[in-house]
From TrEMBL:
Lineage: Bacteria, Pseudomonadati, Pseudomonadota, Alphaproteobacteria, Rhodobacterales
Keywords: Cell membrane, Membrane, Transmembrane, Transmembrane helix, Transport
Name of the protein in question: Branched-chain amino acid ABC transporter permease
Compartmental location: Cell membrane
Database matches in Pfam families: AzlC
Organism: Paracoccus onubensis
Length: 224
């Protein structure tokens, strides 16, 4: 749990910003907390709120949120070997609290300590998730309630890019990772002019597909 504390430096401003932005978009407190408690995915929450404020069609909002969260499928796949043998209730808990930060901290910890028992892995993941998710929810509520009194010169929006840079940079350790990152960035920039977040919906699967292809080719070379 203590290893999660540095993440709060950016998680708390990130959540405060979401509360402020969501209220400015016209959501009430219950709707803001519904996003933060039920969706529990900062990037897709921001995407959905932005599209809603732009009066985008509901299906575009839903598809954009799903596209942003497609990375969770990759996170889940990479965690399968570490959580094999968990019960249905444990899988439900892990799926609900699986976010960028809990994944990044956990997978790095498991790789450094491969001899951990299943109960130890679940305990580590749970401690990390609680230490991050609870402050996220609390800070979202604080931003929604007190957003109007936060001075405009306090730039809370720094938290979003710093959060993802801090998580992603240490994990770009293979050609597949680098290829996926490069293609997704180029595609996002190339499709930035498309309406209602469609560019992001295209960039995300292109990046993942590139990473998968490079991974397959790399494995074939190793076998050869």
């Amino acid at each position: 749990m203590m290893q999660s504390v540095p993440m709060l430096i950016v998680i708390v401003p990130f959540a405060l910003l979401f509360g402020v932005v969501a209220r400015e978009a016209g959501l009430d407190i219950a709707q803001v907390m519904g996003f933060s408690v039920l969706v529990l995915a900062g990037a897709s929450q921001f995407t959905a709120v932005q599209l809603l404020s732009d009066n985008a069609p509901v299906w575009i909002v839903i598809l954009s949120g799903l596209a942003v969260n497609l990375r969770m499928a990759m996170y889940s796949a990479s965690l399968v070997p570490w959580f094999r043998g968990t019960s249905g209730a444990q899988k439900t808990w892990i799926a609900y609290t699986l976010i960028d930060q809990s994944y990044a901290l956990s997978i790095q910890h498991y790789e450094r300590h491969p001899k951990l028992t299943l109960s130890q892995r679940i305990a580590y993941f749970s401690g990390t998730a609680v230490a991050i998710c609870v402050p996220w929810m609390c800070a979202s509520w604080t931003g929604a309630v007190l957003g109007s009194v936060i001075p405009d010169d306090i730039a809370l929006d720094f938290a979003m890019p710093i959060t993802f840079l801090a998580m992603i940079a240490p994990m770009l350790r293979s050609a597949a990772h680098l290829a996926a990152c490069f293609v997704s960035i180029v595609a996002a920039l190339a499709f930035a002019g498309l309406p209602s977040g469609l560019g992001l919906m295209l960039a995300a699967p292109l990046g993942m597909a590139t990473g998968a292809v490079v991974e397959v080719l790399t494995e074939k070379r190793k076998r050869a």
